[in-house]
Structures are given as structure tokens and as C-alpha cells.
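Researcher: Before we compare anything, I want clean individual predictions. No alignment, no superposition, just each chain on its own. First chain goes here; please echo the sequence and then give the C-alpha cells.
Model: Echoing the first chain and its structure:
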Amino acid sequence: MWIQILLISAIVVLAVFMMRRTGADSHLAIRRLLMGLFVIAAVLSVLFPQWLSWLAQLVGVGRGTDLVLYALIVMFLAFVYSQYRRNVAQQRQLTLLARKIALLEASENEKHPTHNP
């Protein structure tokens, strides 16, 4: 009983922490919807562990814990992919900004050349 209370509290606290607006795309409805569904599924898994075994048997996995492991692997790979895409986009933006700064500095140097003795 105590472990259930502890686990549910941890799930809810972490979900609230993760759903805070921290980035430019944190307001996306799909992300919040998926997080809400994940929290509901996690709480139900803690309260009724037998439903996870039933679901695992339904989809052809031996045990509920195996199903959780497989789901976590898929979620981890999706996270790695999304972070990779975000990193590529940030690198592209950084490159464009560096080019713009270089062009501005070159333009500024043409307007006001410095005399080196």
C-alpha cells in the first residue's frame, strides 16, 4: 500500500514538473496529451498491476514487466530521435547566425576600415 502511494506521488510530481512551460515548443497540445495519457497509464499500472499482465497477454508478450520494458525502449528511441532532430535544427540556426555576424562585421569593416601600421 505504501509503495503505491509513493509511486503515484512520484509519477504525479514528475508529470507536473515535466509539463511546465520551459521551452518554445512545450505548449504543443500533442505533447501534453501524450504526457497525460502516460500518467493515467502509469497510475493505473501501479493501482492495478494485473491489467498490465492482461494487456501483455493480449498483445502477445509474456509478462507485464516485459511490456513495460519494450514500451520504455520505444519511448527512449523516440526521445533520442527527437533530441537529434532538435540538435540538427539548433546547429543549422547557429551556423546561419555565425554567417550573418561574419557578414555584418565584414560590412562594418568595409565602411570603417581600420588602419594597421
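Researcher: Okay. Second chain, same rules.
Model: Second chain and its structure:
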Amino acid sequence: HKHVLTQVIGSILFAIFHLLGIVILMNMLVAIMSDSYSNIVGQSLIKWKFARTRIWLSYLYEGSTLPPPYNILPSSK
């Protein structure tokens, strides 16, 4: 019965330590997700342009000179 106060204070400090750890880890998770999102948004225009070019080239390699609706125009092929 001598160490009841010490055990209670120790348990409270341990709980506070765990709560602070959880808050800090959640803050780090939000920061990492925010950084990943900003990187994806920053590269989205470049990726969109590459995808558009890939689609255009697929139409050109298949023998059609222009993709629809431009393929109704007369072409040299």
C-alpha cells in the first residue's frame, strides 16, 4: 500500500505518453498523405498529356490518320 500514489501517477504518465504518441503518429500520417496528394496533383497534367499522346499514336499506328471525329476529313492515306 506504500506505492499506490506512485503507481497511479506512473499509469497516468504512461497513458499520456501513449496518447501523445498516437497524436504525433496521426499527424505524421496526415502530412505524408498530403505530400503524396500534392505530388500526384503536380504530375497529373504531365501524365494526362502522355496518355493523350499514347491514344493519338494508337490511332496513327492502326492505319487511321486521325482519331474520330476528325477521321471524316479526307487524308493522304
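Researcher: What stands out in the second chain?
Model: The longest helix spans residues 4-61. Additionally, The chain has one helix and no strands.
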